[in-house]
């Protein structure tokens, strides 16, 4: 197998989020796409990614290849990655891959391919009452600020706005509206409110680097779904279970 991807920073962001969730993960390269699904240690959150072969500069996969890796080790490998640097992964031996980060200099690593036991992953097929699209930088800032004072983030929606606020004694409210430009679109079946862990959301804010916009989907007492859809066709979906009301 051999794949070349133009922006190593995308992979770095994904591994940063994964490392907060799991100790080990497995990338699957098949003829159509690179895919990964992982559920966190406490079975509260789930991440699913799919990069079609068209997202890669080169994508040479003759048969399915699975790359199992330790997330903390992979994070160390990718830590030096910078913007506009290229990521190259190649394997002639199924027990390992050669990983190169190519920029003003070339960093060459050998990553051992470890066997990851398959965990039972639930199907993602929820119906949501609220679907909104917000500017990623604004969403990141909102969650970051709420997390400084609260363990929980409450999501509220109307026909024209999305309101995120802290749950607890200290109150912070961040409102996204079309008039202010932070809210790109919103559709609701009915006004609903639901609360999620601020810590878990803060842990994956690095994913906002992947896309200029974040799609937010939720219903009362159902998982929150965040979607990061990239210009090259790649997508990352993050689900987080609700907190008890």
Automatic annotation (TrEMBL):
- SUPFAM superfamilies referenced in this protein's UniProt entry, alphabetically: DNA clamp (SSF55979)
User: What GO MF annotations does this protein's record show?
Assistant: DNA binding; DNA polymerase processivity factor activity
All copies of the Proliferating cell nuclear antigen PCNA N-terminal domain together span 6-96
Q: What is any one GO biological process for this UniProt entry?
A: regulation of DNA replication
InterPro entries, per this entry? Answer: DNA_clamp_sf, Pr_cel_nuc_antig, Pr_cel_nuc_antig_C, Pr_cel_nuc_antig_N
Q: Which Pfam families match?
A: PCNA_C (PF02747), PCNA_N (PF00705)
Which residue range or ranges hold the Proliferating cell nuclear antigen PCNA C-terminal domain? 121-242
Is Repeat tagged as a keyword? no
Q: What keywords were assigned to this record?
A: DNA replication, DNA-binding
UniProt cross-references to PANTHER family, sorted A to Z: PROLIFERATING CELL NUCLEAR ANTIGEN
Q: How does it assemble?
A: Homotrimer. The subunits circularize to form a toroid; DNA passes through its center. Replication factor C (RFC) is required to load the toroid on the DNA.
| Record's function text | Sliding clamp subunit that acts as a moving platform for DNA processing. Responsible for tethering the catalytic subunit of DNA polymerase and other proteins to DNA during high-speed replication. Sliding clamp subunit. Responsible for tethering the catalytic subunit of DNA polymerase to DNA during high-speed replication.
Family recorded in the similarity comment: Belongs to the PCNA family.
Q: What is this protein called?
A: DNA polymerase sliding clamp
Record organism: Metallosphaera yellowstonensis MK1
The gene from which this protein is expressed is pcn
């Amino acid at each position: 197998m051999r794949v070349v991807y133009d922006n190593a920073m995308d992979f770095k962001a994904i591994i940063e989020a994964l490392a907060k969730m799991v100790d080990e993960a497995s990338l699957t390269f098949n003829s159509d796409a690179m895919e990964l699904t992982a559920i966190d240690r406490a079975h509260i959150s789930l991440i699913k990614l799919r990069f079609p072969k068209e997202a890669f500069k080169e994508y040479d996969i003759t048969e399915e290849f699975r790359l199992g890796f330790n997330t903390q080790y992979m994070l160390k490998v990718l830590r030096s990655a910078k913007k506009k640097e290229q990521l190259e992964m190649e394997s002639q031996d199924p027990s390992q891959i050669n990983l190169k980060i190519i920029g003003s200099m070339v960093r060459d690593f050998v990553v051992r391919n470890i066997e990851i036991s398959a965990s039972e992953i639930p199907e993602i097929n929820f119906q949501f009452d609220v679907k909104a699209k917000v500017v990623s930088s604004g969403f990141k800032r909102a969650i970051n600020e709420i997390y400084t004072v609260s363990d929980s983030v409450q999501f509220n929606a109307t026909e024209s706005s999305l309101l995120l606020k802290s749950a607890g004694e200290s109150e912070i409210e961040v409102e996204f509206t079309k008039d202010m430009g932070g809210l790109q679109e919103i559709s609701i079946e009915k006004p609903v409110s639901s609360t999620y862990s601020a810590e878990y959301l803060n842990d994956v804010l690095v994913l906002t680097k992947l896309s200029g916009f974040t799609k937010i989907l939720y219903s009362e007492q159902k998982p929150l779904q965040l979607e990061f859809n990239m210009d090259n066709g790649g997508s990352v979906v993050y689900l987080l279970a609700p907190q008890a009301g």
